[in-house]
Every structure is written in structure tokens, then in C-alpha cells.
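Problem statement: downstream parser choked on a complex file, so we are re-checking the raw output for the manganese (II) ion run. The parser issue turned out to be on our end (a line-ending mismatch), but while we're here, posting the original submission so the record is complete.
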Amino acid sequence: VVETPAPVAEVAAPEVHVKVSSRDRLIFPDSDVTKGDLADYYAAMAPLLLPWAGRRPISLVRCPQGRGKKCFFQKHDAGSFGEEVHQVPVREKDGSTEDYLWVDDADGLVACVQMGTIEFHGWGSRVDDLEKPDRLVFDLDPDEGLDFADTKKAAEDLKNHLAELGLVTFPMLSGGKGVHVIVPLTPAAEWPAVRDFAERFARALEGAEPERFVANMSKAKRKGRIFVDYLRNQRGATAIMPYAARARAGAPVAAPVSWTELRDIDRASRWGVRDRDELIARAGSRALAGWGVAEQVLPDL
Ligand code: ATP
Ligand code: MN
Ligand code: MN
């Protein structure tokens, strides 16, 4: 049952100093959400977003003219975002070093919105310890034609298999089509080991139930199956952050849910930017207490 949460002491929205221009520009024309609305959403949600999206290298989906117009993924910036958006040098495969963006407060989030950002995607590790992931995510991507019920069933199966391995997991509606199954980690193992675990786990699912799961990215092999996208768990890959908005019709957001709640939810775009107050109340509800938090390391697989 999706509880309507009792009113809880609301987290005070932090003061924002970044100036937002063109507040009336329609960013989601179909939902009547303006740039100002989106900035206010991120400012109010900052206390809920930052425990996940803060202090991580981030990639932004920017749509300066709004959703439906040209959007692009951005990892780097030469400083045009302002001092609220920080940079961390990251060693690349080819030996060069690139600066990646990160934020740690409401001003940082709003500075990104000011630059046309809708979506915030994050690495699986923090800027303080880039080589050791603090989370693993299985991004379940259903083939077109599958029901949300199939995706929920798949998520629940992952939960059970991971529980057998001693791992606590948390589900998140992506805001798009699928569900992300999140495994919090105490930063210990480095990227190659974490990726290896994720890949082995996804391939084992496919091996056990090839008619339901596929661990291969190719769309052709997805036919009627759910792609267990384990590739979010390699160094440099990102996933949408909890409570981030999505550049999709209806202004949906990525929404944490409990395993019990998930059973009664009918779509991954259940909550959106306009549901801000409900999202804040939900975050304080019993169902979501402790969401995303667990001290655990990966077992051998
Ligand atoms: P859905 O539930 O609709 O699949 P999603 O957020 O899981 O929503 P995916 O297409 O499965 O969307 O992508 C998973 C993640 O991969 C994204 O959240 C994003 O962080 C990353 N990603 C997707 N496309 C790109 C891209 N063009 N460049 C960089 N990262 C990307
Ligand atoms: Mn996905
Ligand atoms: Mn994917």
C-alpha cells in the first residue's frame, strides 16, 4: 500500500543565493513547468537529493530551450557554471586528466538549473574516494511491450537473489520506464572488482532464466526480455540520482520507494516535479526510513 504519509516536520529548504534568469521559460511545455519551478524544486529538494547526488562526479542533461528541444549530456565545463559548481580532476584511461563537475549544496544544484540542466546523473563513487564505489546499481531496462508488472517482478527477483548473497537493496523508480535496484556499499573494493561482481551477477540471472533476463546491451537480444544493465557499475559510468527530474513528458522524477510500496505502483513515472510536497512528506514517512543506507561489502561471486 502506498501510504499517504502523516505530516512530518518538513526539512527546511535551504537559502539559495544563485540568481535564476528567465524564470518563466517553459521547460516542460506539456506540464506547464517553468525554469523557475524547476529551480524551486531542486532548492526545496536539496536536503533529500544531496545525500545521494552530493560530492559525486556528475553528468548533466541540459536542455537550455526546454524538453523536446535539443538536449545534451555534459560532464565537463570550463568554469561557466560559476563557483557553486566544483571540479575534481579525474585520471582518464589514456593517462590524461579531466575535470569533472560536482556539487555539495542547493546553490550548486540551482546553478546547474540556471544553465539549463534538467537531469543529474552521478558516478558510483564520491570525489573523496573516486576509486571505491559506495553503491552499485542494476538498471532494469524492459523491452518495449513488457508490462511494468514484469519489471517489478524482475526487481523483486534481484532483491531476493541479492539478499541470498547477504546484500540489502533499495528500489528506485527511474522516472522513465524502468526500476533501478540499488546496493549501498561501504567503500572498500575498487572499480574492477565491483564491475566484475555486477557483470557476473547479471550473467548468472541470464543463465538461469534466459527467457526473462538478458545481460547483453544489444536491442535485438532484448526481445520480450529485461536487460539487466550492469554497465552502470564501471568507472566513469553514471545513473540518474534519486529525486532528480527527468527530461521526459510529464516532468517525472526518479523516486525512491520501499519494496512493499513498489508492489502497488503502476509506472516508473509515478511522481514528478509537481509532486514536490508529497515527495518531501514521503521521504519522512516510515516506508522510506533508512532508504538507501546499509553498511555492507560485496561477497565473492
Ligand atoms: P529508464 O528507466 O527509462 O531506462 P534510465 O535513467 O534508467 O531510465 P537508461 O537509458 O537505462 O535510462 O540509462 C541508464 C543510465 O545510463 C542513465 O541514467 C544515465 O546515467 C546513463 N546514460 C544514458 N544515456 C547516456 C549518454 N548518452 N551518455 C552518458 N550516460 C548515459
Ligand atoms: Mn534504465
Ligand atoms: Mn540502461
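For whoever reads this later: The pocket of manganese (II) ion (ligand 2) is lined by residues 139, 141, 174, 178, 229 (CB under 6 Å).
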